[in-house]
Amino acid sequence: MPYKxxxxxxxxxxxxxxxxxxxxxxxxxxxxxxxxxxxxxxxILIINSYFSILLFLQIIPRHMVSQxxxxxxxxxxxxxxxxxxxxxxxxxxxxxxxxxxxxxKYTLLLNVVTNxxxxxxxKIVIDALGGIMGLLMLGGVILGYPIESSWALVVIxxxxxxxxxxISPLYISDxxxxxxxxxxxx
Length: 186
Fold this sequence. Notes:
Blueprint: H1 6-27, H2 32-57, H3 65-81, H4 88-109, H5 117-142, H6 146-167
């Protein structure tokens, strides 16, 4: 059975991630040339995560221990990511780990949430692309281009999110969710 209070849990998650981001941003203003793009990226990631968390809390069964473990790890990584705006190498590494864990999370759901195959497969592909994006940023930082890699990450992520929200919306359930009257269920 999915979470009944999905919207409250989603809002609390976004508030927590946003608070960490704001505090971290204002404490790291000395390194603004690299902090600013990673802060912008993180804010867009939080916006994206709001819709993801809201939808998937309504779909994923609460009893799945594997999901709870992965979610806990993702939350820890998200919070740590929000503290590393001035450390682009570490940021890229954590970002890659987050997307890899998300691929594992949704892959494990394929045989459990059988009424959402299209949604889960799209989410897996998109998270895999996010992992590749993190690896590319990691490579750029290692090669000595932390500022350029950070801004490239933001530009690519903005374009991807425009596509995922307006051109080919991702966060649409394959079947109507209980208590929802809209096609998108959000």
